[in-house]
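ESCALATION

Customer reports they have been waiting on this structure for their group meeting. Please prioritize. Original submission:
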Amino acid sequence: MNDRSQRIAALLKTMAHPGRLMILCHLATDEQSVSDLERKCSICQSQVSQFLKRMQYEGIVESRKEGKFVVYSIKDQRILELIHSLEKIFCQEDE
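Update from on-call: job pushed to the front of the queue and completed.
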């Protein structure tokens, strides 16, 4: 239980940064390149790359080569479900 709690806390700490969370929200809709994320998140390319590198190291995102571009996606289905749950709880307009 202690090890699992430590891993979950580390994951949530990584996701807690507004820029990384915004990137994950965009990745929850589809694969994205660094350029796509830079434009959609209004974050400079170097910072997007740093965020993606950290999240890739943490096992949150993965990348693959598509032609001359690298595209990123959410690696773990549980993370995708968590992002969708957060959006449902916090991002839907009040009725």
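Sent to customer with the following note: The first helix runs from residue 2 to 15.
Escalation resolved.
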